[in-house]
TrEMBL record:
Ranges in a coiled coil: none
Signal peptide annotation: none
Descriptive protein name: Phenylacetate-CoA oxygenase subunit PaaA
Pfam family, one: PaaA_PaaC
Domain of life: Bacteria
Length: 335
């Protein structure tokens, strides 16, 4: 909610980096108090430069993940095994585009420019989620992505509905509702395969074997190596640490895998009575960091395809801009 921590009317509403930290300590105290009281920070409120920069970084990465994440699944739209499956998959992929749009809009409320963010994605200066650098080799991968990748996304994003920054938190409410439909469609798809022919069952198991570990990596590095978590939790951008959410996800998935009749590819996975949680095996963090450096199986393909889509969409952006000019001229003429 916009309250006492709003800037005086002479202050810039979207101060460029560097401008805001000269603000009087009173503004900083009002910001800290608002965060402590679980109030929402809104676009026109004063906020520290570093808070703004952290949000732009995270929201931009999130937006980029949504639009890059369309690629692995779109790969199967033309080969979906039935009209029903095709319609579901098309709806899901379109939802991801919508999520990208909400998130780019949320980043714009912080003063970021969409063109600049896309430029940073295309030139490798901003990241997208590691998970989308893995290939979708079979139809069962569509199910594994829905169950595991969207499942991990919900686990991570439900707490973001309580993020201290209003526009991001509100965008997450709708995103989470849609992600939960995505997760259910993946689960239902895998269940059908698991209960199908031996070949279909084997295809489902193979997909889960390949997507399990990369899904655990989605939550980010272990807490001890997470450079942003501590400050983001103080600011209530993040509400839980990477390891906490990863553990929550593992505990949710184990009974679901049993119901699916599929196994999770981790011999060390077992219930720990004392902790009331599952123990699980060591994650290969060297793979995670290597994917982040651009060496995953599909990094190059994903970014090449994204750049091409952007170039091919230039005429649409030009047409939309020309239409907007025409529209505003007409409005002025009739005013
Ligand atoms: N992949 O300090 P840390 C979806 C980076 S889309 C790549 O813990 P933070 C879907 C991190 O950026 C799901 N990079 O960072 C779409 C940082 O590097 P920089 C996307 C990662 O931000 C289509 C460094 O590692 N979800 O669900 O505190 C179809 C240190 O990490 C990753 C979101 O974006 C990663 N997995 O915490 C289907 C959720 N993890 O920036 C599904 C919003 C870490 O210093 N984001 N890094 O160069 C978040 O919640 C947080 O940003 C993270 C990381 C938990 C991901």
């Amino acid at each position: 909610m916009a309250t006492a921590h709003q800037p005086p009317s002479t202050a810039p509403h979207h101060p460029a980096a560097g401008a805001a930290d000269t603000a009087a300590p009173a503004l900083e105290s009002a910001f800290d108090a608002a965060v402590a009281a679980d109030e929402r920070i809104e676009p026109r409120d004063w906020m520290p430069d570093a808070y703004r920069a952290t949000l732009v970084r995270q929201i931009a990465q999130h937006a980029h993940s949504e639009i890059i994440g369309m690629q692995p699944e779109a790969n199967w739209i033309t080969r979906a095994p039935s009209l029903r499956r095709k319609a579901i998959l098309m709806a899901k992929v379109q939802d991801e585009a919508g999520h990208g749009l909400y998130l780019y809009s949320a980043a714009e409320t912080l003063g970021a420019s969409r063109d600049d963010l896309l430029d940073k994605l295309h030139s490798g200066r901003q990241k997208y989620s590691s998970i989308f650098n893995y290939p979708t080799l079979t139809w069962a991968d569509v199910g594994a992505i829905g169950w595991l990748v969207d499942g991990a996304a919900i686990t991570n994003q439900v707490p973001l509905c309580r993020c201290s920054y209003g526009p991001y938190a509100r965008a997450m409410v709708r995103v989470c509702k849609e992600e939960s439909f995505h997760q259910r469609q993946g689960y239902e798809l895998l269940l059908a395969l698991s209960r199908g022919t031996p070949a279909q069952h084997a295809m489902a198991q193979d997909a889960v074997d390949r997507w399990w570990w990369p899904s655990l990596m989605m939550f980010g590095p272990p807490d001890a190596e997470s450079s942003h978590s501590e400050q983001s939790m103080i600011w209530k951008i993040k509400r839980h640490s990477n390891d906490e959410l990863r553990q929550r996800f593992v505990d949710i998935c184990v009974p679901q895998a049993e119901s699916l009749g599929l196994t999770l590819p981790d011999p060390d996975l077992k219930w720990n009575e004392e902790r009331g949680q599952h123990d699980f095996g060591a994650i290969d963090w060297s793979e995670f960091w290597s994917v982040l450096k651009g060496n995953g199986p599909c990094n190059e393909q994903r970014i090449t395809q994204r750049r091409r889509a952007h170039e091919e969409g230039a005429w649409v952006r030009e047409a939309a801009a020309a239409h907007a000019v025409k529209h505003s001229e007409r409005k002025e003429a009739t005013a």
